[in-house]
Structure formats: C-alpha cells, structure tokens
C-alpha cells in the first residue's frame, strides 16, 4: 500500500485522507504501509499541492511512538522521504529512533538522518552510539555518517572496530585510522593493540603500524607467534620474516661485510651435499630457531606455509622434516615444496621428487597426493634442473589429472632452457609434440614449453593442417619469422576461417615487420597492405583489429607505408 502519483490536488487529498485513516488500523502492517505511503505522497505532492499535504509531517511524527517496530521503521522511512515537509520535529524524532530498541528501526533512522543531512551534537552522538551497535549494518552507517560530517571516533574505538569481522566495518575504521596516523593518540592506541590486543584487532594494528613504530616490538612479535588467533600469527610471521634485523642477516657470519660471499658459500655447501647437520652451525639465526619451534605445534595451514616460506628462504635445512610433514596438506603443501626447493639439499630434492610422483593411497591423509601439490613439485623439479628430472617428469605427462600434467609441462619448459643431454631433449620434445595434439586443456602450457625446444620446428610444421584450429594457431605462434617457408605459412593463413588462426598469422607478420622493418613479399595478386588495413577496421573483431593495427604502427615507425 502506498501513495500513487496522479489525480492532481483532488487525488492527493483522497490519498492523504485514506492513508491518515489507515494510521489507526489494528494491523501493524497496515499502519506501517500507511505511514510510508504518507511519506511518498508528501514527497511528490509538496511542490504543487503544498496546502493539501501540509499536515502530513505532523501525522507521521505523531506515529513515532507506535508500539510496533514495523511502524516505527516506516516513520523513519517517511521522514527521510518528506524532507523539510517533516517539520521542525522531524530531526529530534529521527535522532530518537536512531536509539530505538529494534535494530531495523535504528537502521532506517540512520539512513533517514543521511537523507535529511542532519547535523549537530545530538546527531553526532547518535552516530557514535551506533558505532558500537550489535548490527554490523549500523556500525557501517555510523562510520560513514561520521566521516561525512567531518567527525571521527575515539582512537580506542576505531582500533577495536578494525578488529571487526565484517569487511565493510573494519575497512571504514581502517580508513579513518590511516587518515590520523600522524597523531600521537592514534599511534599509541595502535601500539597498545599490537602489544596487548586480541584477535583481528591486534593483527590489523600490527599491519597498520609504520615500520619505525614496530622497531621496539620484537618481544611482542615473538609472543604473537603463539597467539590463539591464526591471523595474528600470520601477520607476525610476515613481519619477522621481512625484517632484515631478525632474519638470516642476524646470523654470526652474514652480519659481517662478507655477507654476500657467505651467502654464496652457504648455498653452495647446501646444494653440494655438505653434511646437513653442520649447516645450521654455519649460519645460526635466533628468529629461525623460534620459527622452527612454533612450526612444530602449528595447526593453521596458512601460518605453516608462511613459516616454511621464511625458513626455506633462509636456507635452514632444519626445516626439511617440518616441510615434509606439510607435503600432505593441499593448502600448505605447495609452500612446503617451495621451501624444500629453496633449501635445495639433496635430501630436500629427493622429497620434492617423491611428492611429484606420489599418488593417493588406499587410505590417504588430508591432501596426500593432492594434484596441486604434485603439480608444484613437478614444476619445481624443472626449475631446479634436478638430476633425473626428465625421467621423473615425462611419465607425468600421461597423468589423468590436468593440473599434474600442467605442472610437468612447466617443469619441462624450465628444463628446455638449460643444456640438457641430447637424448633427454629429443625425448622431451617428442613427448611435448604428442601432447600438443592430444591435451587441449594444457595447449598453452605445451606451447610455452615447446618454445624452448626449437629443434622440434620441422616436426611442428607437419601438423600445421591439424583439424583443430587451436592446434594450428599454436603452431603458427611457434614458427620462425626468419624462415621464408614459415613466413609463407603466416601469409597463407590470413584468410583462415578461424579467428585464432588469423590472429596468430598476424602476430607472425608483426614479428617479421619488427625484425625487418617492412612487409614480407606477398603472393602474386595479394595486396597485403590492403588486407592489413581491412583487418584494422570494423567489422573485424577487436583482437584482429588490434593485431593488424600493431603491424601498421610498426610499418609507420620504420618509415614504410
């Protein structure tokens, strides 16, 4: 039920009369609809029929004491709609409703205060009270309302709200704090929360503090590694790991002017298989000791992942057993693999290989043989150019899981950039070529890997006419712009029905122009410049227009038409 436009003064009169009678109806729903209807009628009729709706504001205000929350919420809506027509009593009524026992009424009233643009000490105080409301919508409204009036909350309350679980609440509170970070009371409250706070409030206070204010917090940070809140532990690990005073530079040797030489020597010793029990002695670290200790009891996957990343980055071989334990976890497992790779000892590399080839057993633990963990391990084996990596990765190209195949392909891509034995290169190139025509989901990964095996080009040219347009496009992307025959293939595929093929043909010509500064010789009767110009205009697709435009721009830059 509500006011309907039209009917002129007579229509407005009838609607106001009807809605006013409804205000005394027995059902709360009818009364609520009536009061909201009066707000709507008053809003549209005030300009032309002010005399008709002159008493609407008073009628709405008079309903503010209704016993039903649905009606009181309607009053707040109506007063927000009426604007000045609500009269002088509208403002105190809206402010009073902002303190209503029912949250839906408080919410409507806070919105009405915004629509009316209410200001003054009473309005500000009402918004301050709402900042501590149990309804998160009202906490947001309070922060937005105060900000719009050039007001802010006390630093202690803002810091508490930064720990709110609702993103909109803590986001607005954080914005208010950042705007006042140069004020001493704000910094003091953040420092207090960083030292003694709880949960998300402590975590976000630590994140917000400028680095110069965190310098005296090492003790609090170390205590935070055992905080009950995982978010606090995550933040603390990140801060300690990033602080150069607390990581490997605090070690006995690397603190000297020989730190670069020591780093290189330490890395070489790790990778050469030096007795792993000696390595921590060569490079002690107090923070690493603490990280290892808390990692033993850590149960949160993200915290464990951060601890492992830090320990791996420091090359601490003592982290290998912990990393191995987390290999079974689908979330922390990839970080465990990366940590083992960073440590790089022969033992660590063997565990990476084991993770790559492992598969779920009859009774798998959480994440055991998880595809993403195995895929990461496969990629890392290639990055490390680990001994025997080719023999490990090639069988994974036949794994039924796409992620694992992709990880193996990326590992072989890394191997292709290094001087592999001829036999390994040939076997890898042949396997990737076969994958090109059989594993469409990983086609782009396969393409990137094949780019590192240029010796496969003759065989690639033989699959240019494959039935799959995507395979043809991929082959074109790998062809050599310095080879006359390949350039002819670019030209002959400019009129291909497939947009992907045409796009790669244009990209090949773009590479040619970039290298030679002119267009390649076109077949007899073909106006290549005209073809490119047509491609650069509608109705060609955006992708084709862009590719053709690049060629034309390159020609203009080189001085050719």
From TrEMBL:
SUPFAM superfamilies per the UniProt record, alphabetical: ARM repeat (SSF48371)
Signal peptide interval: none
Superkingdom in the source lineage: Bacteria
Coiled-coil segments on the chain, per record: none
Alphabetical list of InterPro entries matching this protein: ARM-like, ARM-type_fold, PBS_lyase_HEAT
GO molecular function per UniProt: oxidoreductase activity
Name of the protein in question: HEAT repeat domain-containing protein
């Amino acid at each position: 039920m509500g006011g309907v436009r039209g009917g002129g003064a007579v229509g407005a009169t009838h609607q106001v009369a009807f809605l006013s009678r409804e205000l005394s109806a027995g059902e709360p729903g009818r009364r609520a609809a009536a009061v909201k209807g009066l707000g709507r009628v008053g809003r549209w009729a005030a300009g032309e029929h002010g005399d008709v709706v002159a008493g609407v504001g008073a009628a709405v205000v008079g309903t503010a004491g209704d016993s039903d929350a649905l009606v009181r919420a309607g009053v707040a809506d109506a007063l927000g709609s009426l604007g000045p027509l609500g009269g002088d009593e509208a403002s105190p009524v809206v402010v009073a409703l902002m303190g209503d026992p029912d949250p839906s009424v408080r919410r409507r009233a806070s919105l009405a205060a915004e629509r009316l643009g209410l200001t003054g000490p009473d309005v500000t105080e009402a918004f301050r009270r709402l900042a501590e409301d149990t309804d998160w919508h009202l906490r947001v409204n309070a922060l937005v309302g105060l900000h719009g009036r050039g007001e802010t909350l006390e630093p202690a309350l803002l810091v508490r709200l930064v720990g709110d679980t609702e993103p909109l609440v803590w986001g607005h509170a954080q914005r208010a704090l950042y705007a006042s970070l140069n004020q001493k009371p704000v910094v003091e409250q953040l420092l207090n929360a960083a030292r003694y706070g709880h949960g998300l409030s402590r975590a976000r206070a630590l994140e917000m503090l400028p680095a110069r204010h965190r310098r005296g917090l090492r003790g609090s940070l170390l205590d935070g590694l055992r905080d009950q809140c995982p978010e606090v532990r995550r933040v603390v690990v990140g801060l300690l790991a990033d602080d150069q005073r607390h990581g490997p530079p605090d070690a006995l040797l690397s603190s000297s002017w020989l730190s670069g030489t020591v780093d290189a020597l330490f890395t070489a010793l790790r990778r050469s298989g030096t007795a792993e029990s000696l390595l921590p002695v060569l490079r002690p670290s107090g923070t690493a000791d603490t990280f290892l200790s808390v990692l033993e009891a850590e149960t949160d996957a993200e915290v464990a992942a951060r601890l492992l990343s830090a320990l791996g980055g420091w090359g601490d071989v003592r982290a290998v057993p912990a990393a191995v334990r987390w290999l079974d976890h689908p979330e922390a497992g990839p970080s465990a693999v990366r940590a083992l790779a960073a440590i790089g000892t022969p033992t660590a590399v063997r565990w990476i290989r084991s993770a790559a080839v492992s598969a779920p057993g009859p009774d798998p633990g959480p994440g055991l043989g998880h595809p993403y963990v195995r895929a990461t391990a496969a990629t890392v084996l290639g990055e490390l150019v680990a001994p025997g990596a080719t023999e490990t990765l090639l069988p994974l190209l036949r794994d039924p899981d796409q992620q694992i195949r992709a990880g193996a392909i990326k590992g072989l891509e890394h191997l292709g950039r290094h001087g592999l034995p001829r036999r390994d290169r040939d076997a890898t190139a042949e396997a990737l070529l076969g994958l090109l025509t059989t594993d469409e989901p990983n086609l782009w990964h396969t393409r990137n890997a094949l780019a590192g095996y240029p010796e496969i080009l003759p065989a690639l040219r033989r699959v240019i006419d494959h039935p799959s347009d995507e395979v043809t496009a991929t082959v074109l992307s790998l062809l050599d712009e310095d080879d006359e025959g390949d350039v002819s293939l670019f030209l002959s595929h400019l009129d291909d029905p497939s947009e992907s093929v045409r796009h790669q043909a244009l990209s090949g010509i773009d590479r040619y122009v970039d290298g030679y500064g002119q267009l390649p010789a076109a077949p007899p009767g073909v106006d290549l410049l005209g073809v490119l110009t047509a491609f650069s205009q509608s109705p060609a697709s955006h992708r084709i227009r862009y590719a053709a435009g690049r060629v034309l721009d390159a020609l203009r830059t080189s001085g050719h038409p």
